[in-house]
Specification:
Pfam families: Peripla_BP_6. InterPro entries: BCAA_transport, Leu-bd, Peripla_BP_I. This is ABC transporter permease. The chain has 2 domains: 200 residues, Response regulator (Rossmann fold, 3-Layer(aba) Sandwich); 131 residues, Response regulator (Rossmann fold). It is 42% helix and 20% strand. The strands form 4 sheets. It has a 6-stranded mixed sheet with strand order 2-3-1-4-5-6, sandwiched between helices. Strands 8-7-9-10 form a 4-stranded parallel sheet, sandwiched between helices. Helix 2 packs parallel to helix 11 and helix 5 crosses helix 6. The N terminus is likely disordered.
Amino acid sequence: MKRSLFFAFFLSLFLIASACSNSEQTESEGNEGTEGTTETEEAPTEPIKIGVLASQTGGLEAYGEQTLRGFELGLEYATEGTMEVAGRKIEYIIEDTETKPEVAVQKATKLLEEDEVDFLVGSSSSGDTLAVLPLAEEYEKIMIVEPAAADSVTGSEFNPYIFRTARNSSQDAVAGAAAIAGEGVKIATFAPDYSFGWDGVAAFKEAAEKLGAEIIHEEYAPQDATDFTSNIQKIIDAKPDYLFVVWAGANSPWNQIADMKVQEKGIKISTGAPDIAALATMEPLVGMEGFTVYYHDLPQNDMNTWLVEEHKKRFNGDVPDLFTPGGMTAAIAIVEALKKTEGEADADTLIETMEGMSFDTPKGTMTFRPEDHQALQSLYAIKLEKKDGVPYPVPVLIRELSPEETAPPIRN
């Protein structure tokens, strides 16, 4: 009887222990299941939103259009037509800065506060861009700068949320100086009187003087000027060997430089070859040696071939222009970064991912330099020549300038 009671007592303890064990296991399994569901729910699935700032009106309207066309093509190329990355749809919102810094700030604030974008891209004007940079830091959002070129963007005004796919003024300067500067060469410069012009001249002067040239005169004109007679006369009076022009916008000085017969007075002209519309005004400068950011038949790679062919299909046979590949590159940089972060758009994660990131573009491989987030890239030493069937002087390649060769000084 005692043995039976003992056995019953032992069996009851065993069953209680077993039940507790099963209960704990069930509870544990239930918790694991709940955690798994939470992780799935927390995985980012909402759309990636990109706010694009561009000059759709104003003096740089043509640049804005080129950038926007390239950006849209770039998203399509980078996502293979899905407009999706890491399971997240991509949406973009375009805002016109009107080429006015105060408007750029208003539009960027709207994109950040009302539209709650994950990225900013832009802008066509260095003045617009510099006004917006502090907002990227304030709202902790990555801003891809394209096509603004002022050195100060990744220099004195740099903050860690800024990444630039556009080349900067120092990269232009290295290319421009390589074309004309040398020991004892006397050079005058001409540029618009705002950040793009100032930075461009300062960078060119530094590069040219390293090669032994002397900058004997610097001339600046208002950004919206249309009459350059007095500026050009001062340059003629200075009697340089070369006039190096830094310019952007539709109100270019080329016609007046030709009308005032600057070259006939023994002054050679050099500049960065501009977009196609401006090339059409440079007939008097055939034979000029300088550089260019891009011309559609210079880069020889599959991505550029795709860009040229697709652009012709969609835009009535027009070829991509000076800043079209830049817009495409900005889109590719965003998609490539999000692929690496598996769709995570947290700025700190993106900064860590994008610093030192290399990626393919229509101009070849670019790399975001970790120190200042400037994209190192190829530029092109060119000569303007006439070409049968083309109604404007064509930039003909002298040689490609490698990303290492055009790497600008770190100025931040």
